[in-house]
Each structure stands twice: as C-alpha cells, then as structure tokens.
Amino acid sequence: MKYKNIPDLYLIKGKIVFRKHITVNGKSFNIWKTLGNPEDFSENELIKIVTKLRKKVYEKILKFRDVKKVEKNSVEGVVKAILQEEAGKTVKHKLKFESEPIFTKEPTFGEILEKFFSWYKAVRKKSTYKAELKRSRNLIRFFGKNFPFLRIGTKEIEEYRIYRINQGTSKSTINKDLRLLSTVINRAVEFEWIPEHKLYRKPLLFREVKNERVRYLSKEEEERLLQVLDSGKNKILKNVVLLSLHTGMRLGEVLNLKWENVDFKNKVLVLFPDQTKNKKRHVIPLNKIAYKALKEQETMKLLKCPYVFHRNGRKIKSIKDGFKNALKKAGIEDFRFHDLRHTF
C-alpha cells in the first residue's frame, strides 16, 4: 500500500520501501530500496529524502543521455535505466519546506542523541547499539541533555578530557567516548539534522594512545584456574574458558558460536563477517584442547538450539558471575576474561 501518498513510497511488511517500476528499450525493471521503520521518519524527512534522490538523478541525466543498452542483471545498467527514464523530465515533487531545518530551534545534545540512536539501532548489531548507548551516558553526565549541541567546541572537548582523567579513566577509554561524539557530530551534519558544526570531521582523540595494561595468566595461575574449573560442576564455563584460552577468541565470539561454525572434520572454526568485530571472515584452527572442549559441548547439543553454548536451549548471555567466582577460588586478582586473549 502507498505510504502517506508520497510518490514511489510504500509500506511493505511494516517497512517503508521506495519502489519504482521502469521500462527502458522494451525491458522492465523494479527498483527497490528499504528505508526503515515508519517511526524513524517524519513525513517531512521522507519527502526530503525522495526529493534529494530525484535531484541527484536530475543532475546526472546528461551523463547517461546516450545509453542504449541495459543489462538485465547489471546494477550499473539499472541505475542508467533510471537516469534514462528521467531524462528530459523536471522534478515535479518539490518541497515548499525544503530549505527548512529539521529543528525549528537550536537542538540540544539530548535531541541529537535521540535521533542518532534511532538511526544507529536500525543499522548496527543489537550488542553494538547497547554498548554505544551505554557509553553515551558518560557524555550525558558531563554535558547534560539540555546543552546546546552547536556550542560543543574544542574548549568543551578539552574540559571533557580533563573531567574523565580526574575520574581515573584511561586515555583509551576517553578516546572511545570521543569517537562516539565525533560520529554523532558527523552524522548530524551529513543527515542534515543541523546545517553545520565547527567540529565536523575534526580530530577529537588523544594521539598515540597505548594501553599500558597487559595482563595475562602465569603458568601457575593458569594451572590453578583450570584445576578449579575441572573440579566444578559448571562444564560450560570450563569449555568457554578453554576455547578462548586456546583460540584467542573474544567472549562475544565464543558465546555467539553456532554449530554451523564448527568444522570437526578439518578441525577449524569458521566465523562469518557478522560474527566478528572487524566484519571479516575468520578461520580459526583448533588444537587438541579446544577440539576436546567442543566435543564435550556436542554431548549437550539440542536439535532446536543452534548455539554451541546454551542453558536449556537458550543462548548464554553472560558468564560474569561464574568466571568471577572461579578466579576468586583460584586466588587470581586483577584479571578479566578478555585477558585470556593475551595469554593465548
């Protein structure tokens, strides 16, 4: 069904979709683009998006005026087809409010953050979204939600650095906060929520930051920890630790592991791009200990559960308490699960 009578916009399965049917040189094409959820856009924003796309098409018309051949399955061919169809036409659907800003008055920091995370939630993994939303609280505690967004400048950035340093925060963590703030500023300008910002695409981070903390298990500590895990009833915790210790995998990668990632025949794990931090495919070899840990998990495998590590068919979200107790029993201090990667 058409969405709010805006040309070429439809509501399909709860999503706003841009759909256009064209015919060029006797060939038909359907152009689809999913924009997102209805609650993520105002009517004005949607019309502005459509208008902007049409304007870009109109500006490029002359470049493709002489296109004669269009390949059926070629993305480039489809784009050229759209441009060919639009040739000689005027953009009829102009906005009377086109030059009006998204905000009628100077936006606050809280208002911009709300729009940013509405977008961020739709384009990032749930875990990443939650982590950055949590990180934004550090910025909110300092600036406050009502602080004028356009007033954030180099002076405020330096004050924030000093504020966080006085809290005992590492420069690496402060940089993560500032990287989020920089992304918010850049997107606010690029998405035209604001006309401009003095910190747009400006460096905000500390330079040459090195994490001084490099913690790993000594041979004695590793033996004590494994002894505690071997004697305990929580075999899942033991296998999670063993797998990370002998592959260098992150906790999130281990807990998100599915049986489709496990190749017992070739003794490797294959992690797909959506399962890794850098969005790249990883092939991880398994040594005897890691292989044995997965084989033990296989005895707990449930037909309807895709996850390697689960409790009663439900994915395990955290092992924090169990790991903390194991460290305490082993007499190990100042150690985090992530430090197992350093030991590896």
TrEMBL record:
It holds the Pfam family Phage_int_SAM_5. This is Site-specific integrase. Signal peptide: none annotated. It comes from Thermodesulfobacterium geofontis. Belongs to the 'phage' integrase family. Keywords: DNA integration, DNA recombination, DNA-binding. Residues 107-189 form the Core-binding (CB) domain. InterPro entries: CB, DNA_brk_join_enz, Integrase-like_cat_sf, Integrase_catalytic, Integrase_recombinase_N, Phage_Integrase, SAM-like_dom. Residues 212-344 form the Tyr recombinase domain. One of its GO terms (molecular function) is DNA binding. The keyword Hydrolase does not apply. GO terms for biological process: DNA integration; DNA recombination.
